[in-house]
Amino acid sequence: MEEAPTSGGMWSGSGSPSRSSERTKPTGMTESCSLAETGRWNRLRSPAGRDGRQVSAAVPIDPFRHSRGPADAPIVVVEYADFQCPYCAQAAPVLHEFAEMSEGQVRLVFRHFPVFDIHPYALTAALAAEAAGLQSRFWEMHDLLFARQDRLADKFLHAYAASLGIDGDRVIGDAAQPFGDAVEADYARGIEQGVRGTPTIFINGEPYRGRTEIAPLRKAASLSLRRHRRAPWSRR
After folding, report:
1. Model's pTM, two decimal places?
2. Where does residue 231 rank: exposed (0-12), middle (13-18), buried (19+ CB within 10 A)?
3. What domains can you pick out in the chain, each with its CATH number?
4. Is the CB of residue 198 less than 8 Å from the CB of residue 113?
5. Positive or negative CA dihedral for 43, 170, 92, 206?
6. pLDDT digits (tens, 9 = 90+) for 23-77
7. How many angstroms separate the CA atoms of 191 and 31, rounded?
8. CA–CA separation, 171 vs 173, rounded Å?
9. What's the CA gap between 210 and 219, in Å, rounded?
10. How does pLDDT run across 211-220, given as a tens digit for each residue?
11. Residue 58 phi/psi, 5° resolution?
């Protein structure tokens, strides 16, 4: 688990990173990137943007805006993730496969939780993904960011947007700053749910503490439905 240092702040802007996060191969997918100082999370309630803009602490943002799968699926998997977290990058394709293999029984929801103290590009990557989402390209940008996690500076974000048919200037700099409200809303919701690091996963509102692998995810999902109908993968 990566611990957060004691300096820095989330809304200080992109610029050049003051430190780089070391990518180590996790021994288990329950490892995560985490924030060490829980008290500092309240700073997100009334942060100032890099241009001095005050970000609203109460934003009417749909927490289910980024989802894969039917809206009425009986299993809702919510992931809080950071685009610069190596464990999130490993979890992303597994969660996608899990939802795809569920025969429409799983809705996968993504929410932002940038571990900003140790991941200097996490916030600007999240803003770029939100900006891409406005052009109906959130998941395409999501996949690109995780696939190219070591290249998240603004010039790369600009290029990724262009490759998706989006004006690159819309996903970086001042143009992307208004999307901070959406990122903040996700982050604040995560705090309320007790999120301490990434990836953090909930299955039907309950924290999932197993490995991010298909078999244990299926087991947890099946257990959540044990008093209802059987999960499709449990049918004989």
Report:
1. 0.76
2. buried
3. 75-219 (3.40.30.10)
4. yes
5. positive
6. 333 334 456 676 544 334 344 333 334 344 444 333 348 999 999 999 999 999 9
7. 19
8. 7
9. 10
10. 999 999 999 9
11. -130, 100
